[in-house]
Amino acid sequence: MENVMSRRDRKKIQVLNTLVDFAMKLFINKGFEETTIADITKSADLGTGTFYNYFHSKEDILKYVLVQKFDHSKNSLEKIEKSTITPQEKIRQILITLAKIYEDNLQLFGLCINHLGLKQPPHGTQFKDILVSIIDEGQKSGDFRKNIPIEMVIETFMGLIKSALSSHSKISFMENLNYKLDLFLGGLTERNK
Length: 193
Description:
- By secondary structure, the chain is mostly helical.
- It has nine helices and no strands.
- 74% of the residues lie in helices and 0% in strands.
- Helix 4 (58-82) runs antiparallel to helix 5.
């Protein structure tokens, strides 16, 4: 049986997307604190009550957009995880994918850090589970050293991302990340002598 969305459901999604699009534009251009719910609904040409049918606060909009980005990211990372490329290339592709997502969403992440007090991504253990799977695969195949606990590899990988994000180096973010990735993979694949 074909799953066809009703006209009413399509309209709900359209209203939701309209609220989110106008809110994000206002947050970026006017500022989060300076933007009111009335500003959002006026810009979207919707009633204030409509806003509250979808969200409880401006912060809820940020959380919604962030979750949408992470869901999309998770799908990309799962495709990499299931691919037939080597574990080393999977790690490289994951890091490049995450870096691209970060670069494409700098303003969103800035808003979330400043207004949601976001210290860690809201994706829970999903991202970590994908990494654990790839590292485990690499250790079993002999591509990665077996004498390093997976937890330490994950911690180092996450530290690599944080280090690139907070670097004051004059080289570009992607170049910085690639140098650090080469060092990371070199240590992870170096054979015991």
